[in-house]
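One-letter codes give the sequence; the integers encode the fold. A sample entry reads:
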Amino acid sequence: MRHLDRFARAAFGIAVLAALGACGGSEEPPAGMRPATEAESACLRDIAKAAGTTDIALISSESSETGTMVKARVGDDRTHWDCIAYPDGTTGEIMAEPHMTEG
């Protein structure tokens, strides 16, 4: 019986992936659904240090020639934090966004 249950879940997963692929499928997975890039990891590390907690989740990132803007949720109140990761491996402008929380 367990094998049928696993098979059904696998078949459902394949069907979902096929349906998503038919929708254009070239988009990158959401930030929380893929491994963090080096820039994202650097910002997450430094945001965690500044916030004094490891309860942190990547929201998004946007790369440009000058650096990568990273947005994260931090702590129980899910406060939004920003950080910029630069090509040389440093980070800067790490700050909580005032009154930006998720419930």
